[in-house]
Design brief:
About 35% of the residues lie in helices and about 30% in strands. It contains ten helices and 15 strands. The strands form three sheets. Strands 7-8-9-4-10-11 form a six-stranded mixed β-sheet, sandwiched between helices. Strands 1, 2, 3, 5 and 6 form a five-stranded antiparallel β-sheet that branches. Helix 3 crosses helix 4 and helix 4 packs parallel to helix 5.
Length: about 300
């Protein structure tokens, strides 16, 4: 538990017959940028609310920063920042004055911290402008600034790029990457898979309230890979690969094959082809995208229900 910023054990939240979250076993490594993936209504926001002690679990337990969420005190919340759903600001106040309000109500008297977070999220040059003049992306960055006022060890971001245009999405991605490199543990829920693949080092996939998969990005994307092989003569290459690996390569283009074998087999394949006089022009390792892993995982689960 000491190496986990978040740990859950059979955590559940039911609303009558609706199982919003069911028997969830999560482990979020400390210092990681953790992607919590799932389609809309998968249970992502409910899980965050459980971890922030905003709703009570039906069953199971959760620990955040080593403290039992349900049975312990709420002291851990002083080390947590969160952006859940749409940020709410006073539109007639400036960005800086809104942060002053948040700092006062949150009990953070250090005004120099406001300067730090404004600079960190890239809103310092607009801090004196009224929030009603901000774009949606700027409001999201200001909301993250508010969540950082207490210098949190753990930061929850619930769909932080929802509704943003591509430029705004890129800005938030860059900000999350910078926060991760600064040592924060970041728990980011999203259904935008290519975004998570770019910024996270660990992920979990949830659907209909249940955990389907979790692990490092490298582990999940390395499970299913293939070798794209360009060689001549291609027919001879295909026969040698099939005999060597017991896998029949798929022709995909002129002088190109796709062999669904581990990347570790590449040196052995090259050696066998060269020994047989086959000219090998290139071998490229192709692996699944996070989107493909997600679709495969949820499809398998759907087939078993």
């Amino acid at each position: 538990m000491t190496d986990a910023a978040i740990l859950t054990e059979k955590l559940s939240k039911h609303y009558g017959a609706l199982r919003a979250v069911h028997a969830l076993d999560l482990c979020v490594p400390a210092g990681s940028v953790f992607g919590f993936l799932g389609p809309n209504r998968a249970g992502k926001t409910t899980t965050i609310r459980l971890l922030l002690k905003l709703v009570r679990p039906t069953a199971g337990r959760a620990w955040v920063l080593g403290q039992d969420v349900a049975r312990g005190s709420s002291h851990f919340l002083a080390q947590v920042g969160a952006l859940v759903e749409s940020p709410a600001f006073y539109p007639y106040l400036s960005g800086r004055d809104n942060l002053r309000v948040f700092a006062h109500t949150g009990g953070y008297p250090d005004q120099s911290r406001i300067d730090e977070v404004l600079e960190l999220v890239g809103v310092a040059d607009r801090q004196h402008d009224r929030v009603r003049t901000y774009s949606l992306g700027m409001k999201q960055r200001l909301a993250i600034a508010a969540a950082l006022l207490n210098r949190p060890q753990l930061l929850f971001l619930d769909e932080p790029t929802n509704g943003l245009d591509p430029a705004g999405q890129a800005e938030i991605r860059e900000l999350v990457c910078a926060l991760g490199k600064a040592g924060h543990t970041i728990f980011i829920s999203s259904h935008v898979l290519h975004e998570i693949e770019q910024i996270c080092d660990h992920v979990a996939i949830i659907d209909r309230g249940q955990l389907l998969r979790q692990g490092s990005i490298a582990e999940l994307l390395g499970e299913q890979c293939a070798l794209r092989i360009e060689a001549d003569p291609i027919d001879q290459a295909a026969a040698i690969i099939a005999r060597l690996t017991q896998v029949t390569p798929e022709p995909i283009a002129a002088n190109q094959l796709l062999a669904k074998v581990p990347r570790e087999r590449a040196p052995e394949i090259v050696q066998a082809l060269s020994a047989a006089g086959v000219r090998v022009y290139q071998i490229i390792v192709e692996r699944e995208s996070l989107e493909q892993v997600f679709l495969r995982t949820t499809r398998i689960e759907a087939d078993h229900t």
